[in-house]
Amino acid sequence: MQLELTNLGKVFWPEEGLTKFALIKYYIDMAPVVLPYLKGRPVVMKRYPDGITGKAFYQKECPDYAPPWVKTLPVYHPDSAKTINYVLCNNPETLAWLANLGCIELHAWLSRADHLEYPDIAVIDLDPGEGATFEAALEAALFLRRALEEFRLTGYPKTSGARGLHIFIPLQPRWTFSEVTNAIGALCDVLVSLYPQKFTCARPVPKRRNKVYLDYLQNVRGRSMAFPYSLRPLPGAPVSAPLTWEEVEEGNINPKDFNIHTIRNRLKERGDLYRGILENPQDLKPLLKLAQVKFRKG
């Protein structure tokens, strides 16, 4: 496989002087850890050809000029009656090629090619609204942890790389996107009903003020999420970093501490804290029963 890397000296993070070379090197170094999470998943490219201060754009269709060794997956979208050929990032060369295109973030589907309509991950995105703090997101995560445990489910927390947190929940790929969305939505609705002053599922941004938005709609078919160890296009080059629940409980977390400079040492010291995502597929049936009750009540 041959790959020509271009414009390696272009500055992508101006405040830090980090270049496109630093971006590509990061993903090449991290490939053994990153690729097991991405393998077989349709990738949505968000490209920053001029770094984090330049214009960015989403690209779902694999470009015609992609090298012949870049694998793709055709996916039909009924709402637009279109088929999109998504990139599959299954090897280090493809990961480096994506970085060379300016893909700072790693956004992928929650399902894989061999069970495309049945996600093997559910996600809850905890996003503090205006006036809410990161500490409030940590509190929400702990409430959700206990709620998930009531349904014999384990969630895995990570920083979003920005102001919030993500909880990934590994699943047996037996339920549709709609079923997963409804189940996770029912759980979030229960939490909002118990703590309406703290949390919300309301989509209008003004209604999220001083609250943590529990976004379960990332589980809808066709949506993509920032995956573990994804860089984020923000000052300091932060990383979406896996956490332990003990760290969440202690609360002494600054998302900026997890970045392109520090994450490799953290991996050496702590190992990959997200391995359970790959090794612990779980049964959604107990939580689906809650969703069924919710929808029967209307």
Q: Can you describe this structure?
A:
The chain is α+β, with helices and mostly antiparallel strands and 298 residues long. 32% of the residues lie in helices and 18% in strands. The chain contains 8 helices and 13 strands. The strands form 3 sheets. Strands 3, 4, 5, 6, 7 and 13 form a 6-stranded antiparallel sheet that branches. Strands 9-10-8-12-11 form a 5-stranded mixed sheet. It has a two-stranded antiparallel sheet with strand order 1-2. A hairpin with a 4-residue loop joins β1 and β2. α1 crosses α2 and α4 crosses α8. The mean pLDDT is 94.
Helix/strand order, N-terminal first: EEHEEEEHEEHEEHEEEHHHH
Major beta sheet summary? 6 strands, antiparallel
Report the principal-axis shape. globular
How many DSSP helices? 8
- Cα-atom Rg, whole angstroms? 19 Å
- Strand percent estimate: 15-25%
Distance between the termini: 55 Å
**Strand tally:** 13
Helix content: 25-40%
Structural class: alpha+beta
Low-confidence stretches: none
On the 0 to 100 scale, the average pLDDT is: 94
